[in-house]
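ZP: hey, is the adenosine-5'-diphosphate complex queued? I don't see it on the tracker
AM: it wasn't, my bad. submitting now with these inputs:
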Amino acid sequence: MIEISHISKLYGKQRALNDVSFSIKEGEIVGLLGPNGAGKSTLMKIITCYIPPTEGDATVCGHDIYDDPMAVRQCIGYLPEHNPLYLEMYVREFLRFSAGIYGLKDARDRAEEIIKHVGLTPEANKKIGQLSKGYRQRVGLAHALIHNPKVLILDEPTTGLDPNQLEEIRHLIRTVGQHKVVLLSTHIMQEVEAMCSRAIIINQGCIVSDDSMENISSQELTSKFHKLTQ
Ligand code: ADP
Ligand code: MG
């Protein structure tokens, strides 16, 4: 579903990614775990075709990021870091607008469906700016899911949520992830344990570990990660 092959990225002289390779199969929820500045957001922007890599290749659902970026974007739902949203728009209006962007012919019905699916029904008539952080994340997720993509790319989807909101969003991600491929980033170890079937640790632009959660104990994962952050 996602194939990353020898991706490197330089911003001027600064190397943000260094020869990154991995592949993700259907049904996996993969946590990209790394400290701030590790290169997580950069990698996600490359996979979603927002920025080009300096070197290397990637395909998503068989579509090449260079040859067919539009097809890549069609099969991806992307929740960027800091979840940029139109705060003056109403939730329902925004999601109809999102559906329209993808040219869905039943945009109104699809907006209603997704509102229900992510638990936004009580908030659907409010302005996005009036919502709590947890509900804003749901709007971001609804936007990412509107065109029913096969792949979800979520950049720090739970950062800044309070404990209740956190549990609800984690649950939602696990539920929608059952039928998709999910790549989510985080700098918090517990997030990976709570949601993911596999953990890829990234540090200073390099993959330092890649294990399925079945094969690695919580202790091992913690110690690998803590070595980087000390
Ligand atoms: P993460 O998401 O893991 O915190 P980023 O991908 O945002 O990491 O950043 C990786 C490195 O690349 C950091 O050192 C960051 O300062 C640098 N970087 C990110 N974006 C840019 C940019 N647009 N221009 C220059 N350097 C950047
Ligand atoms: Mg980031």
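AM: back. The pocket of adenosine-5'-diphosphate (ligand 1) is lined by residues 11, 14, 16, 34, 36-42 (CB under 6 Å).
ZP: great, adding it to the tracker
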